[in-house]
């Protein structure tokens, strides 16, 4: 990774970038801005735990309050910052307002308003809302310009190519990305742009559709103070267009804090202040909590919102007991809540304005989505040289080991076992490399898929089949590379020229099924580590039931059924049939022997190939279904209440 280039960016470049934004603000004032408000919002989580009662283990359900009857408002043209300690509920509030809150084990009640009109779900207005995640999830081998262009093609279907290019170029100028617009985003393996530039690129991807509400989850996390200030300054300029900018923030510096227009302080699920930043210090001063002049107000507020602040205040005197500290902290927070509730009717008045139009589906056709995703995946594979080299070296290592072990197969009776082993090695090498490769590659790309699907950029079908087809060339290349080196080197069946090509076809189909299986595991498992732990538990039984270790007809019926979905079984059977057909083998006494009768195979080579392809295709269909479910979690819906029921 290259050094943080934001620090090296000259002040002149930064100023020029910000001047461009200011000059364009007047031209880009959005029409029909949106105000978002919430009333009496409650979020509770049901937590299950196990406790031993009277010698018996019982499940105990407990309710934990995350948001406690909170009300507030965020207006267009303002940059509202949500501050609070860890676990205060600020991210839950942000996710609820943006429609990203998953309702599993949660109970939610309250009222939500857009421009004074009560709504059930923010999802109905998703095309006017954008959300920037805390982590910068971008494709490492794409440049900021390419990232913008790709998303513009998907999200702006009614724009011409020229209009899209103009939007992209303007965005690059506004975000100050001119110097890195053609540099790879990068990751820990690929040299790329700086952290600040990645954050601005993440913001730019969401700004392409000109949203009216922009939510951000801690956009300054991981950035140094100067870079964070640049990001916040840009967000403030964006709000001046009339965009409603709402962001959680973690311990901002005094310089950054002064850039906010509105601040919302939340602790233990309760809002204790919402209003203008410049009035916040005075508000708490009236309650008897004076912020020292040399103190960063944000740090002082964080101190007030934590029990540690009470300990610090008493550090020179007698340290209070833990319960006394908790009581003092509780009394303090109750004082803040009461003061806020007295002001909330004035600060959070909900006035009916121009109604907000619900979202209308404007997506590219499924075929065009498939085409764009296919081209992106192919480009990513070509540029990801590290992965290409790693997988090629893996195939070469497998080939070298294979040649060393099976360099003397023999043609007599002992050669039968050697050729059995060679057939199984070929099968398991292709299966394992494809399974592990698919898990590693998709697990790293899964967060990107979830982000883009949450933004409704494309469908699950288009994504999976585009990505699946993009890997087909390499799924053919690696088996061909392996067998081209090993097949004739160790003396496998060459009685007919077709034998080599048949072995290659079997290996490709085994690779196809294995990669399908790897995709499914990585989709179903939440993390890469979980997927890697899950692999041995499922692969070892399938491998044991290949027919190499034990005759399938002798195992119990349950395991016999499991063997019908084993890629090792059909790949190994097909390789053995290809290897032993057309060859003559004899016992040490000179009696002819058919090796295939020993294995008790009950399918032909053609049937094995058809089954491998069909099972691989079936598993890929399951992958599409799995992708759809993981990218469409249940979202909260609220009971609609008329505005007249909630008069101030």
UniProtKB/TrEMBL annotation:
Pfam families, sorted: ABC2_membrane, ABC2_membrane_7, ABC_tran
Instruction: Please state where this protein is localized.
Output: Membrane
Segments passing through the bilayer: 388-410, 476-494, 500-521, 533-559, 610-630
Q: Name one GO molecular function term.
A: ATP binding
Task: Give membrane topology per the record.
Answer: Multi-pass membrane protein
* Coiled coil regions, renumbered to chain: 312-339
Domain ABC transporter: residue ranges: 47-293
**InterPro entries for the chain:** AAA+_ATPase (IPR003593), ABC2_TM (IPR013525), ABC_transporter-like_ATP-bd (IPR003439), ABCG_dom (IPR043926), ABCG_transporters (IPR050352), P-loop_NTPase (IPR027417)
Task: Work out whether the entry's keyword set contains Heme.
Answer: no
Its keywords, alphabetically, are: ATP-binding, Coiled coil, Membrane, Nucleotide-binding, Transmembrane, Transmembrane helix, Transport
Q: Establish whether keyword Transport is in the entry.
A: yes
Which GO cellular component terms, listed alphabetically, does the Swiss-Prot or TrEMBL entry include? membrane
- Tell me the protein's name: ABC transporter family protein
